[in-house]
Amino acid sequence: VKKVTNLMGVKFIMNKMASKTVERLSLYRRILSEMEQKGLHYIHSHQLAELANNSSSQVRRDLMEVDCSGVPRRGYNVSCLKEKISNVLKDSDEIKIALVGIGNLGRALLSYFNMRSKNLKIVAAFDSDSEKAGRVISGCRTYAMSDLKRIVKEQKIGLGIITVSADNAQKVADELVEAGICGILNFAPAPLKTPKGIHIERIDITTSIEKVAYFSEINKRLR
Amino acid sequence: VKKVTNLMGVKFIMNKMASKTVERLSLYRRILSEMEQKGLHYIHSHQLAELANNSSSQVRRDLMEVDCSGVPRRGYNVSCLKEKISNVLKDSDEIKIALVGIGNLGRALLSYFNMRSKNLKIVAAFDSDSEKAGRVISGCRTYAMSDLKRIVKEQKIGLGIITVSADNAQKVADELVEAGICGILNFAPAPLKTPKGIHIERIDITTSIEKVAYFSEINKRLR
DNA sequence: TGTTGTGAATCTCTTCACAGCT
DNA sequence: AGCTGTGAAGAGATTCACAACA
User: How far apart are CA A120 and CA A208, in angstroms?
Assistant: First the structure.
């Protein structure tokens, strides 16, 4: 999808990448970071493909979205490519995230996340159980739900992660949207209704495991 | 994909459903369970679509995989449909799962899972830190890694969930495969290499959140 | 020669449109 | 009249195949 805007005589080309491409670029970037740390300077499309478990033509196709320029017989410059991918993924400046639902999963995400990622940070966590407010978990402050709107606005938080139960997910989503958030990662096993313009990404663990169960069973039978 | 086998004069039709269809059927089934508990007997394709956040033609298309038969003007019988979906998803008898990596995320999955799901059960959890062995977490026994092969075989465990760090994921996958497992759900942020026939499902949380970041940013700019 | 960059072909997934049933 | 079931069209994602290049 492409959108060209002509603003004051200057052309802005807005290119919305395909969903799958974004996923893979995110992965490539992480792989490239590792390569960079290992002191590798150049990498071929088939090597990156090997590390990402896909094909070299897939890699080259994805890199068409990036303003990259590899050199035949030498490959792509690792640091340069990493940089260019970050450009198109547009998360170079720190993006702030709110997490709602401080259960086991929420805690796991806090510790998991605030270790690694530099540009994406969970800066506030909320729970309906106000007993859980006023602490610091993995470097993240916790608050009562009643503080959500205020904190999100004060801290200019742009994204939300929902790790509450299915029954409460919709209510939480509504509050996040009202607070001004524009993207949600939803772990609750329920689809969310939100106004257009809010991007929702869903991780449904039950479905994923049922999918593994299905396909491994089918694989066995197809033998 | 269809495969027809002619065994002793009897035709076996093996129909491998599309990946996305399996995902949605898994969701439909859960929705239908809820409907059933609420005492609802019939449901229309557009109602199911509404609840699953998709279109009625999508629902009807998916249900073509199921031997269902809805009635025009009445819809589908809820319990019957649920039953038929379970048939094609092929997980009617209990499927046993091993979890490797008893960190925050592992614990979250144990409590999250062994509450709900009846047919899918995490029956054993493993960790390289043998301090964590010999306990019971959310009804699941924990063991040292050295017991993995034995327990998987003894208990006829078919699936594995990997919640260890990226560096250790491949090693764990190899052990699971060697123990005889044929499907893996991988939470580690690293792609796994496994022999053909082993189905791998990946949940990459970092990628998911980067995807939300990307698309919500793009949405903002396209306004 | 070996690898990149990309049009074209293929495959997969979703939506449309409408015949057929009750 | 209203909804189901499905062929056919459309959109999206992947693979193929090869010209261009260092």
Answer: 25
Residues 180-209 of B with CB under 8 A from A: 182-185, 189, 191-193, 197-201, 203-209
Cβ(B35)–Cβ(B18) below 8 Å: no
* Rounded Cα–Cα distance for residues B25 and A207 (Å): 9
Give the pLDDT confidence of A140-164 residue by residue, as tens digits: 999 999 999 999 999 999 999 999 9
Confidence (pTM): 0.94
Tell which residue, A89, A66, A91, has the closest CA to residue A76: A66
Q: What is the pLDDT of residues B62-78, one digit of tens each?
A: 999 998 788 988 999 99
What single string gives the DSSP state of each residue in A92-129? Answer: -S-EEEEEE--SHHHHHHHHHHHHS-SSEEEEEEEESS
Give the residue ranges of DSSP H helices in chain A. Answer: 19-37, 45-52, 56-63, 78-89, 104-115, 148-154, 166-179, 205-221
CB contact under 8 A, A213 and B184: no
Those of residues 61-100 in A touching chain B at CB distance below 8 A are 89-91, 95, 97
Q: Which nucleotides of C are covered by protein (CB under 7 A)?
A: 1-7, 12-17, 20-22
Q: Are A194 and B10 in contact (CB under 8 A)?
A: no
DSSP state of B146: G
Neighbours of A159 (CB within 10 A): 24
* Spacing of C-alpha A121 from chain mean position: 11
DSSP code, position B93: S
What value does the mean pLDDT take over residues B97-120?
A: 89
| B30 contacts chain A (CB < 8 A) | yes
Predicted confidence at residue A114, as pLDDT, reads 77
Angle between helices B19-37 and B45-52 (to 10 degrees): 100
